[in-house]
Design a protein that fits this description.
single chain; 384 residues; Beta-Lactamase; 3 domains; seven-stranded mixed beta sheet; five-stranded antiparallel beta sheet
Length: 384
């Protein structure tokens, strides 16, 4: 029974900050990775060489670009994919070295790869590859040793441009979510938080990082039933997302208003796995709206007072004049009649004074009216 050893992989990272043509003083950063767990049999000797027709058929049908180089890095054979990836013809590539194709590679890298293949079996290079037109593309290069009489190395090149773009987009989106001014949460189908960004934690005054995870989102609002209906409608309704406003309760029991918008969260199979919510603290906006409504109420009140004073002023003036005339004409009448007329005249003078003060009001102030419940609206009147 042949001996077995665990597969080990060395990764060589040749990705520069800015892709540039290889230079003599450029040295790779070598990173060792040990991946245990895959048992690979060790054969006591190399298998015999494949027939040339079989070898070429296999080489040309590989999905990845393949470069076969000798121990000095000179390219001796390529497949069609290599021509497509690098924009060179097969004849042009056979007159080049792998150092001309893999940015940052040099003799020291080749020695490192060769030594590693003698001992470790697997080598993976992260690098930029250079096309004929001078453009670059990110690549993952797997290197293997071939038994073709003398040492040959096979470089399998995979263009990872799309994967790199996806990774960079994920990083960008993650940074955007982490630094968003709104609270962002991801909940599962049961409504439990699987992710909460820092803004969400600050809004709910959670001092511990990830302290909101596994909490029920419905416990963070006051009206649990409204939150339940919103989630149910979003997951089961025809509309993909929606928005609502709710009263929320922080971890310290203080309350505030939030505007909540969300959408379904689906997995790669298109199945609903929960929701993604964006929450915005609208307490300031609510206070501003209330202040604006209060100002509008006062404006309407002042305009109403002005209109009332205008409409009551003329009849009050007429009544006051008539009472004056009646008092003059009743000078010889009995004292009780004169007393009634004088009382009515005094009341009209007071009414006229109140109308003048109301017409001059330009500041809203109230004063206590009923002693029993001074804080109730009915217990206070306008201070004039």
């Amino acid at each position: 029974m042949p001996d077995k050893e665990f597969s080990k992989t060395m990764r060589i990272d040749l990705i520069p900050d800015v892709p540039a043509r290889p230079s003599g003083n450029q040295r790779p950063r070598v990173v060792f990775e040990r991946r245990q767990g895959v048992s690979i049999p060790r054969t006591p000797r190399e298998d015999g060489e494949l027939e040339d027709s079989h070898f070429q058929r296999l080489l040309q049908r590989l999905y990845d670009a393949a470069l076969i180089a000798d121990g000095h890095g000179r390219i001796v054979d390529v497949n069609v994919r290599a021509e497509e990836f690098l924009s060179y013809s097969g004849g042009e590539l056979r007159g080049m070295t792998v150092f001309d194709v893999i940015s940052g590679a040099d003799e020291s890298v080749l020695r490192t790869v060769s030594d590693n293949l003698e001992n470790e079996r697997h080598t993976l290079i992260q690098a930029y590859c250079l096309r004929k037109d001078g453009s670059y593309f990110p690549a993952e290069v797997a290197v293997s040793k071939l038994g073709l009489g003398r040492l040959h190395l096979c470089f399998f090149i995979r263009d990872i441009t799309i994967r790199r773009q996806a990774e960079e987009m994920l990083i960008t989106e993650h940074n955007a979510i982490q630094n968003s001014g709104n609270g962002i949460v991801v909940v599962d189908l049961a409504g439990r938080l699987e992710y909460a960004n820092p803004t969400m934690e600050r809004m709910w005054r959670c001092d511990q990082r990830d302290g909101l995870l596994d909490r029920d989102l419905r416990d963070l609002v006051i009206d649990r039933e409204a939150m339940e209906r919103f989630m149910r409608d979003m997951l089961q309704g025809d509309v993909q997302g929606g928005a609502t406003e709710l009263r929320a309760r922080r971890l310290d029991a203080t309350e505030f208003d939030v505007q909540l918008s969300g959408a379904r969260n689906r997995n790669s199979d298109g199945e609903n796995v929960g929701c993604v919510f964006s929450l915005m603290d609208i307490s300031d906006r609510k206070r501003a709206d209330e202040a604006e409504r209060e100002l509008e109420r006062r404006r309407v009140m002042f305009e109403s007072l002005g209109a009332a004073c205008h409409h009551l002023g003329q009849p009050a003036t007429l009544l006051l004049g008539n009472l004056e005339l009646m008092r003059e004409r009743l000078r010889g009448a009995d004292p009780e009649t004169l007393k009634l007329v004088q009382g009515s005249l005094n009341a009209m003078e007071k009414l006229s004074a109140v109308l003048r003060r109301l017409n001059a009001v330009n500041e809203y102030r109230t004063t206590q009216y009923l002693q029993s419940d001074a804080d109730a609206p009915s217990g206070r009147i306008l201070d004039i």
